[in-house]
Amino acid sequence: MSEATWDVQDGAIVERPRNVRKHPLLDRIYERHDELIAEQLPAGRTLEIAFGQHMHPQADIGLEGWPSNAETVHKPAIAGDARTLPFADDAFDAVVGRRFLHHVPPADRPEILRETARVLRPGGRVALLEGTPGLYRKLTKGVAFRLGLLAEDTDIYGHLSEDAVTDLVSESFEIAEKRTLGSPLMLASISESDASARLLDLYERTQFVKWWTFVVGERPDSVV
Ligand SMILES: C[S@@+](CC[C@H](N)C(=O)[O-])C[C@H]1O[C@@H](n2cnc3c(N)ncnc32)[C@H](O)[C@@H]1O
Fold first, then answer.
1. Which residue stretches of the chain are H helix?
2. Which of 103, 129, 211 to mutate to test the pocket of ligand 1 (most atoms within 8 A of CB)?
3. Where would I find the Methyltransferase type domain in this sequence (predicted)?
4. In the CATH scheme, what architecture does the domain 5-218 have?
5. Residues in the chain with pLDDT < 50?
6. Rounded to an integer, what distance in angstroms lies between the CA atom of residue 15 and that of residue 17?
7. Which residues form the pocket of ligand 1, taking CB atoms under 6 Å from any ligand atom?
8. DSSP 147
């Protein structure tokens, strides 16, 4: 059963997400994503927005809308809202944000990208990962709910298409990288059994099924 508890704050869905470490395949996938993100980020001071229960190894500090998530990571973290970042201009070299834009009302999302650009230095980079909508996600989630593997659906705003994520990022950044990440094995990632971790190789070879969109933006010299 999912452990998630959640609330809506100023329209944003804040929550205690699933503990990734209890789901061996998902845990390995997160590690893989950490590597892909690290390849794209400049070294230096790094912020992760809406880290949930997992912060990138390069992150120096995290910001979360569900304050007690800070207790689950062994890094400095503060409670806050991604729409008004409590940091100075040019404070970071890199910002990471995974699976959270879809938790914020669509009208507020451009402000998150503007805020991210503001706290990044020129040439700094943002790496975003967002769930992709579609029939495969619908079917997978449907099966997971039916099997009782997921308790509640907090995705009340739906997910963002690849184009929607790219358009949002390109309003404030130059696109440095864009790719699809995914696999028909995502249902197996819900399993808490160790056997599921052995599917990682197969996961790597089946990225053609869209599950996430990965977009990296580079901050231009001046921001709007
Ligand atoms: C689906 S979880 C993803 C967590 C984590 N990034 C991951 O990939 O596992 C979405 C997270 O976004 C956080 N969140 C939602 N809206 C937020 C906001 N406006 N500011 C900060 N955090 C927010 C929630 O509390 C939740 O932890």
1. 24-40, 109-119, 135-146, 162-172, 200-205
2. 103
3. 77-127
4. 3-Layer(aba) Sandwich (3.40)
5. 1-2
6. 6
7. 12-15, 17, 50-52, 54, 63-66, 69, 81-83, 98-100, 103-104
8. T
Measure CA 190 to chain center: 17
- How is the chain split into domains, by residue range? 5-218
Query: H helices then E strands: how many in the chain?
Result: 5, 9
Write out pLDDT tens, residues 199-216.
999 999 999 889 999 999
Question: Three-state SS for 111?
Answer: helix
pLDDT digits (tens, 9 = 90+) for 10-55: 999 999 998 899 999 999 999 999 999 999 999 999 999 999 999 9
* Best residue for ligand 1 mutational test, from 5, 13, 14, 69 (most atoms within 8 Å of Cβ): 14
For residue 101, the tally of other CB atoms under 10 A from its CB is: 26
Tokens found for residue 13: 């869905």
C-alpha angle 184/99/172, rounded to 5°? 120
The widest CA-to-CA distance across the chain, in whole angstroms, is: 50
pLDDT of the residue at 132: 95
Size of the chain in residues: 224
Distance CA 97, CA 127 (A): 6
Rounded CA-CA distance 62/117 in Å is 16
Cα–Cα distance, 141 to 164 (Å, whole number):
22
Full-model pTM: 0.95
* Strand spans (E) along the chain: 5-9, 12-16, 46-49, 61-64, 77-79, 92-98, 120-131, 174-181, 212-218
Q: How far is the CA of 99 from the centre of ligand 1 (A)?
A: 7
